[in-house]
């Protein structure tokens, strides 16, 4: 959901991107992005999705034809995507395949880096949305620093939802997109890049044009962009980031954690099973009971209760449903989804004691709000 005040902000008349007014706004946005990522590093805004930002990070740091080798942590469709980008650009890489629902383990990465000294970069998904799992970025960053490897983190469903402390943890590149916790339509990608990563990028000569981070870095020195940006989204972004700063990141993180805790309590009270062994606070995944058709369940949510819930991806498609805790949602949105899930399961023939999930979630909210 996009907040109404953000929609209204984006409807206002706009300056084009070569004006002083735009550059003043863009400077403010960039400073607020540093707060969001908790970094003193360079924050860049690309017109494109989170995948564009991820591709820019990987290709900029590793796609210059030098002797780079990437360890790709693959615990879901998005971890797999970064390995596919390495494949597309001919970047040497090896895969650490993590069981879906589990986070990548620092000790496994430590072992793999110890056994293969040619690995100089690690890609990691902080919050793997499709499997609703989370990885311990802080612990993994300690390992990559120990082995002098760059750490590139996909924070697309983490930044603005989960604790992210780029500089304190030692992450070299973090990236995200506009359409998740930042509560905007799709169309912007963001990267935070530290000096250690810039040293690698500036020394290389990767084959790219639009996603050339050197060009973005040069432009940002003048509060500008190298190519035409999405002015409307950037105006909305300024409104969102100012709101996050006013609330405080700790309050934002705590809010998402509370929504997730209440949802997990409701799922367990209803006799359902959580999918993730290492659950993320950005999204909760739940196994659909074997006697329930997942397609009919989600269709009932849309047609009768006016709600959208996500299904599974890959090998868990048709077996899992997912509920978001990111961005513009609150306790009453969460309770509505839980109540609708109870009603829908009963209607489809799976017995659930009406109110049990709601009661469990309300107890969590009563103690935490």
How does this model look, in words?
The chain is an alpha/beta fold and about 375 residues long. The protein has two domains: about 5-245, Aspartate Aminotransferase, domain 2 (3-Layer(aba) Sandwich); about 250-369, Aspartate Aminotransferase, domain 1, CATH 3.90.1150. The chain has helices spanning about 5-10, 20-35, 50-60, 75-90, 105-115, 135-145, 165-170, 195-205, 215-220, 230-245, 250-270, 295-305, 330-345, 355-369, and strands at about 40-45, 70-75, 95, 120-125, 125-130, 135, 150-155, 175, 190-195, 285, 310, 320-325. The chain has a seven-stranded mixed β-sheet, with helices on both faces. Strands 10-12-11 form a three-stranded antiparallel β-sheet, with helices on one face.
The CATH class of the largest domain turns out to be Alpha Beta
What is the string of helix and strand elements? HHEHEHEHEEEHEHEEHHHHEHEEHH
CATH fold name of the largest domain: Aspartate Aminotransferase, domain 2
User: Structural class, please?
Assistant: alpha/beta
Q: What is the helical fraction, as a range of percent?
A: 40-55%
Taking the alpha carbons of the first and last residues, their distance comes to 22 Å
Q: Count of DSSP helices?
A: 14
Strand order in the largest sheet: 1-9-8-7-4-2-3
Number of strands: 12
Whole-number radius of gyration?
21 Å
Taking the sheet with the most strands, its summary is: 7 strands, mixed
Strand fraction? 5-15%
Global mean pLDDT = 97
Corresponding CATH architecture of the largest domain: 3-Layer(aba) Sandwich
The stretches of 5 or more residues where confidence is low (pLDDT under 50) are none
What shape does the CA trace take?
Answer: globular
CATH superfamily (homologous) name of the largest domain: Type I PLP-dependent aspartate aminotransferase-like (Major domain)
> Looking at the chains present, what oligomeric state does this protein adopt?
single chain
